[in-house]
Amino acid sequence: MSIKPVRNIIVYNDEQYNTFPSVVRNQKGQYVAAFRQAPDRLGTYGLEHIDPSSKAAIVTSRGGIVWDERSSVLYDDFFCGVQDPCLNVLGDGTVFATLFMWKVADREEVKDRSDYTHRVFDKWMAKPAGAYTVRSADGGQTWDRPTDVAIPGVYIRGNCVETEDGAVLAPFYGPADGVWRVVVGRTDDRGATWSVHAEIFPEEGYGFFEPNLYRTPAGKLVLFSRCHKSKPEPGDGQAAYPLVTSESADGGRTWSHPVRRPIYSPSPFHVLPLADGRVLMSYGYRFRPFGIRAVLLNPECGDLDTAEEVVLREDGHGSDIGYTSAVQLEDGRVLVMYYYSVPGERHRYIAGTICEVD
User: Fewest CB within 10 angstroms: 108, 149, 161, 334, which?
Assistant: First the structure.
């Protein structure tokens, strides 16, 4: 079994700050990609992933290789920055998107800083403004208004799963008593109302961020989470950022003890079930040499500790890259999408690598 990168492409580049893509193939056979689009403030302020002007943008493609030259808007909010749109295609064809938002305020005007938890360029303060779901009944051409999941203090960047009984489980994450844990949310009405289905806590000294959910052919649920050591020590290196997995055999109500895996990156891990039953897991590699990597897993993801890591590319400018999302093309090849730039390029853009899988 192997993954062979054969071609790198630029999906979308308009000299804005384009990041965090998510790609699916809708029931009409069209490829749809959503991403965060923000003004490029690198030259004026520097690097920051919180922006009150950010929005969820979308582009489409007939074959997955050549993409729209112009983006359209999935959602743009007047008061808040929109972050991390993630797409899912449900069994009835609904394109089901998740996102969260930031509220930004002038630092000098924030009197109560208990919920304004993030500094922005040392001039402003930001706080999470809720996680939301947005639906499309026409394959991603038009979208309804966002629905607040009403679970306090959570973020989301990761794919959902649909259960046998038609419910949708979503992998939220956020702090509780200073510990960043996963909150598995459940909706039985396509996102109109949500409840907390389960919580998964990391081992002491670690935190969970940007988890993804996967449902195996046998019905087992597997959580793939980006994990950070709370207080890295000299010499930890990449080991401070392991992939951590947890499993559920009862529809997500209870979960196994989280296990650290010998795969590392402070960038989320995306999982794609392939037509032959295997699973392709991809991720941005935010260590030198910076780039994109992937592994092939068996259908039940039981070989995580022995799977071979494959380098898809290693020409990134630095650590501000990654956030992969993958989709299988009609000819069997796989498009692994991510945000990227190479040395000498100022702007971040949405790129992809076409891979052969055998």
Answer: 108
